[in-house]
Structure formats: C-alpha cells, structure tokens
Write a sequence for this structure.
C-alpha cells in the first residue's frame, strides 16, 4: 500500500485524500496550519516549508510527494526530490510559478497569449504600457492566485497607483482581453506519458475568484482540438506528471493562453460526480504510475463555488443529482469554503435544477450566466 | 459541523466516513482493534464494547452514534443511547440481532418467510426437522454473518453432527429454499420518517459470502412493489432511522424474507458510483436528520466482491467506468478485503466490460451468473 505525501493541506489535498482512499492509498499531509482542513480526513504533519527536519521525517514516511499548493518554494521541492519521488517534478513546478516564464513558454509552444512584457521598474512599466496599450493588467510574476497580486490599469493615468500597489517585486504587464468567454482544460499525464483530457469547461469569475463552471462547455467543438494540442504540448515539454489545468480566453473565436495551474483545479471539481474518474483520483493514479481513469462527461455538470461562507445546504441536498461539498473550513471573506455540483442528463433538466437551487439560496446572479449559456444538444 | 460516532471500524465505517466527509461531517470510530481499517480515514478510539469509560469519552465527542457492526451488544447500545442520539435506536437494532425475533416480525408484518422453528434443545431439533422437513438450515439465532453459525442439514442423518456443531446456544431451524434467485432491497429512512429505496439488486453468494451484485435486478418489475412495501413496513414498525438491507429469496416468483441487516450493506456498495447518492451518504444524511438523496440507478452496475485477498487492480483501473475499492485490510481467508464496481449504460456494454475484467483476472466463474442474467431493456 502506497503513501502519498501532499504539500499543503487545503481543500485540494482533502479531495485528493478522499478520492485516493478507495484505491487503498494512504496519505500524509504537511501544512504549517495545525487545523488545515485536509487533516480532517488524513494524518497531518504541521511544518513550515523551511523546516527540513520535519520534511525529512515526512519524506521517510511517504512513497511519492505531490502538491495541493503550487507556490511551495522551488528549493523546498528540489530538496525533497533528492529524497523521494516528487510529481510534478520541481522543474515543471518552477516553470509555472512565474507568469513571465509561463507565458514565454506558451509562445514558444505556439500557444497565442495576450501581449505581455516584463516589468522590473517604473520605467519598464511606462514603456510596456505604451507598447501594449490600455486597458492592461499589471501582475506579480509569482505568488498570485484568485485575482491576488493584480492591478487593472484602465489608462496611463493609473500608472502611479498601480506601481504603488505592486512595485518592488518582479512584475508582468499583460494586455487586458475583452474575451467572449473563459474556458479551461483539465488534463492528466501519467508517469509513462499516458495523456488524457476532460471535456472543455466554461468558467465564470467574480472578483477574480471562480464563481461557476459548466461542463462540457457548449459550442466548443472548434476549441477542443487546439486546447488539447496546447495542453499536450505543455505537458510533454515539461515532462509533467499529474493533473493540471490550462486556463484559456476565447477571443474572436480563438484561444489565448492565460495560465497553467500545476495541480488539480477548481474548474475540475465537477469531475467528482460528473465524470467516471475524477481529476483527484486521476492525479493520484498518475503520481503512483497507475493507469489513468475514464475522463468522459456523464451528462451536463455545473459547479457553483461557495466563497466566504456556505449558503444553506438544504436546497442542494433536497435536489436530485445535486452534490454538496463543505471543506470543513471556517468562514472568511474571499475564502473558498465549499462548492456544489449539479448534474443532469440535459440542458433542460439542468435549467430547472439550477433555477430551484438559485431561487432557494438567493443565488440567481451567480447562476444567470450559466443558464444563459446552456444549450440543448 | 456535526460529528458522527461509528461503533465498529471495518470497511462499512470506512465508506461511511469517506461519503460523509464532503458534507462537512466529522467522524469518530470506536473499535477494539487499533488497526481497524476505518482508522485510515477518520480518528479511531480503541476500546472494547464493555469499556464504559472509553465509551463515555466517545459519547462526549460526538453528536450522534451509529453502527458499522450490528452485533454491538444491545446493552452497550442502550447505555450509549442514554448519553447521545443513537440511530438506528437500540430496540430496532435488537430486533434484528436475533433471527427468531426477526423472522417472527416478518410474519407479523405479512412478509412470507421460509418455515422456521426455535431450537433450544436436541429434542427441539428433532421435532423441528420432522415438522419442516429436510433439507433445512440450522442457524444460531445471534451473531451470525457471512454464512458463519450455519449448518445445512441434508437429511435426518445429519442431526447429530449439526447439534455437535452449533448446539448449546439458542438456535433456529429454517427450511432450505431452492430459490430461483436472491435479491435485496437497500432502503433508507430519515429521522422525520422520509423513506426511500434503491432499485432492487440481484445477488450471488459463494461459500455463504456475497460474491456479486447486479443492479437494477432484471425482470424484477413484479417484485419491486412488494419488496418496497415490506421494507417500509419493517422500517415503520421499528421506527428505524438509517440505511438497511432487506434480503429476500425469490421462489416460484414470490418473495420470502430471509433477513434484515440494520446498516449499510455489501449488496449496496454499487450505489457509490451507480446512484447519485450512495447508501453511505444517505445513511449519514438520515442519522443527522438531513434530506435524503437521490436513490435512482445511473445505468447498470455490477459489484464484484474480493474475498481473502485482492486480485490485480490494473485490469479494473484500465477499464472505463470501473471503480476499485481496496479497504486497506490485510489479506485473510474469508475476509472481505475490497470490491470493484463496473457501471455501464447498457447490458451489452456491461457484458463486454465484465468479459474483459473477468478474463484478465481469471474470474470467469464469479462473473458468469451475472452475465447470464443481464438483459437488454
């Protein structure tokens, strides 16, 4: 029986441990917070990323290590990889930790991206904005997630306040894209190179945080081949092992690479009930060198994220083919505390399901763009 | 956030904890074995059923208690019920712990059963066998499971050896039924009386232990109404709360009550992937007073039990819509160590799936009766 160690003990680690347990896999979580929510379902070792004594004990108790959190320091990951198998491997992880390296890689692999430029000084920012034009988005190259570390520049008048907000660390300026929609592709690659993708997902964000996902994304036939090709190119270039998400904008019907998340991803949570083998189980299979599982969609799925605090569970629990996920975290503004996934055989059935749940929870605004996008096949 | 205590830490407790975790429910397991397999996924308290100090500490840490194991001593359950909510309640549990009381109840509720008689002495056994005829099955009234505590009497010449094998504890003699098939109904009843059933399941046993289940049972239309009526009558009579299984024989096209299991049941394991809400999640919902979940079947499901030791996982992992369950137990003859569930949209697809898996695992004999029973709708 193998033990998988997970760096980071949030909801992703929690769902990995729940998905891997039926395979007979054991888990050991390491997190600096003693109350990290994955510790409710698997043994937790409390340690900082620099506590090498604790990490040494961690390495001795596991067969393979993986990540709940992509911003584990690269040198911690490299140190660990000298002692135990780590997937994705540290160089692959490092390539995705820096937005400039990531977008440069996208371009090298033939993946279109929004225009971008490195910004290391105020002068760089002036020059980059002149070149890219406004609106644009200034972002930290590292450690950003859920819209954190980003500043939208509407015009050159915003330069000073943007620089005050983010200046002092390596930055990237990106053209702001008036996209038609956002999609993501969850892919998984095994230790032997086996590669598989879930259906393309359409996503909606609110305040920079994922609000809802619809899978499969409607009217996406023309996007599937290029999205899959891009994901495969990235995975093979990085010799990536595990599940990952490629986030893409659709602009004028074409794909633009936004970012890659080197881990299971919020826009793949629907796969727990909406696919035969979830992204979580497939990630566990991949890092252990097991065959990958079936990634097809079982009907239509909609994932609704619960941010800050959970709404009432009752209307979701009472709805057929609706699934409740409470991560066991305490409420806090902007924190992902849970999600619900609704499944249905048809868009018509999904519309009715969404309408009942949204009305009962007062979540009509969250659900409206999804309902407007659902199409009958 | 509620904590559910589970008496017994086997695979049923393990699957209850895995199913309840997404609801935000916490678990605490009590078992006399420190290595009970549910302890791999939830906190485990090592204690015997008579260790009332430990049980008192257990009661203080939980909101509601339930069972992985129906043979928890009745007085332990009653003692606990004075301190914390226990579901199913001890009187309901007690009624199912004794085969004589159980079968008498079936008769009172209008459920046909095989002929039976109490046997407390050798003379009782002679008298009962003369009355019931042979073949017959002598069983201990209490503590039997998986064919344990049973002796098949082929003719009156077997009386002495049967008495030597089982005599000395309260017994029941039952007519041996040359049934056409065995079916079971998994039902669940909420704290408010809400009642729901999964589709009828057809089961095959080997050496007294469940070998395979097929859901929904084919050609069962005429059986669904009486089976559901019987399950509801039992549940309402006992004011039962939680999931349970009613095991039935089909003889001359009619149902005969065999036994009731007052807990989630091996013949309901297919519901993890084959139904929107599994028996495990529904049991947790029921004991916590939450709305019951959707019990419909998603296509056809076949569960194959792994007894003694696990076969190779690879052929199951490589098959689409096939699911592997390793309970994390060490191998031992006659021990349930895992199962696989195969799902499909049609009997044709299932036949192909079963054939591939059976061939790869050398399990043709286990699968053959299921294949012979599958019918296209």
């Amino acid at each position: 029986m193998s033990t998988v160690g997970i760096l980071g003990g949030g909801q992703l680690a929690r769902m990995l441990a729940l998905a891997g347990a039926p395979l007979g896999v054991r888990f050991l979580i390491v997190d600096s917070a003693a109350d990290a929510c994955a510790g409710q379902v698997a043994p937790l070792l409390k340690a900082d990323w620099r506590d090498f004594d604790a990490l040494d004990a961690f390495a001795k108790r596991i067969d393979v290590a993986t990540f709940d959190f992509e911003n584990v320091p690269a040198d911690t990951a490299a140190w660990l990889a000298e002692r135990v198998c780590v997937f994705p491997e540290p160089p692959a992880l490092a390539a995705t930790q820096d937005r400039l390296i990531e977008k440069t890689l996208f371009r090298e692999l033939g993946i279109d991206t929004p225009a971008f430029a490195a910004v290391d000084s105020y002068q760089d920012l002036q020059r980059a904005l002149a070149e890219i034009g406004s609106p644009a988005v200034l972002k930290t190259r590292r450690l950003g997630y859920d819209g954190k570390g980003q500043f939208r520049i509407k015009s050159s008048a915003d330069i000073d306040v943007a620089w005050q907000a983010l200046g002092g660390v390596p930055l990237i300026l990106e053209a702001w894209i008036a996209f038609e929609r956002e999609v993501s592709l969850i892919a998984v690659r095994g230790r032997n190179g086996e590669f598989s993708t879930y259906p393309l997902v359409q996503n909606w964000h609110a305040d920079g945080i994922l609000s809802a996902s619809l899978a499969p994304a409607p009217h996406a036939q023309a996007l599937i081949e290029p999205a899959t090709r891009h994901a495969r190119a990235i995975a093979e270039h990085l010799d990536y092992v595990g599940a990952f998400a490629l986030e893409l904008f659709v602009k004028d019907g074409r794909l633009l690479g936004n970012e890659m998340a080197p881990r299971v991803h919020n826009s793949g949570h629907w796969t727990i009930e909406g696919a035969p083998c979830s992204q979580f189980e497939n990630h566990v299979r991949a890092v252990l060198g097991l065959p990958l599982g079936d990634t097809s969609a079982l009907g239509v799925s909609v994932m609704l994220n619960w941010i800050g605090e959970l709404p009432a569970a009752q209307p979701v629990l009472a709805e057929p083919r609706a699934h409740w996920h409470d991560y066991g975290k305490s409420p806090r503004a902007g924190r992902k505390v849970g999600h619900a996934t609704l499944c249905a055989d048809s868009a018509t059935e999904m519309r009715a399901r969404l309408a009942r749940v949204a009305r009962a929870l007062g979540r009509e605004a969250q659900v409206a763009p999804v309902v407007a996008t659902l199409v009958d096949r």
